[in-house]
Amino acid sequence: MKKLSCGLVGVLALILGYILGSIFPLNIFSSSQTQHPFNLALVGDKGIQGDSQLQVTLKMDNGSPLGNVEVDLAETPGQPPVGGVALSDEDGLAIFNVQPGNYFIFFNDENFPQNIETPAPTPIGVKENEINQIEIILKVR
Q1: pLDDT tens digits, residue range 43-82?
Q2: For residue 105, what is the enclosing H or E element?
């Protein structure tokens, strides 16, 4: 009977480990600078967050602002790091507070408006002690 209960406890531990491993993959404990599944930031992981401001303005080719669009910022296009995601407001303005450096502005195709052409990644240099600005003109498909 003792062997049966020990075996049952072992099986339950394996099942629980499998379930928890599916919810919280081990890579959330890595030291990489990328944002992790479920947007869980590592404690102390500041990503690219900093004191330099980057203002990205989204406008349609007719001059009207494009609001409520996710704008991504990273050293290379892909999964944006902590501090590398902003949402444009009703004036088309997305604001990032990041470390000085060279980045790319890009967009998430999964939630980008279907009727607008997704622009290619745009390189931008963010300088310290300046308000860095860029305007991106978008076109209807």
Answers
A1: 567 899 999 999 999 999 999 999 999 999 999 999 999 9
A2: strand 101-106
* Cα–Cα distance, 139 to 81 (Å, whole number): 27
User: Rounded distance, CA 123 to CA 29, Å?
Assistant: 30
Q: What angle do CA 14, 18, 19 make, to 5 degrees?
A: 120
Residue with tokens 């890009």: 106
Question: Model-level pTM?
Answer: 0.69
Alpha-carbon gap, residue 141 to 139, rounded angstroms: 6
Cβ count within 10 A of residue 71: 24
Give Cβ neighbours of residue 94 (< 8 Å, ≥ 6 apart): 55, 56, 57, 58, 69, 71, 86, 87, 88
Residue ranges of alpha helices (H) inside 1-141 are: 2-23
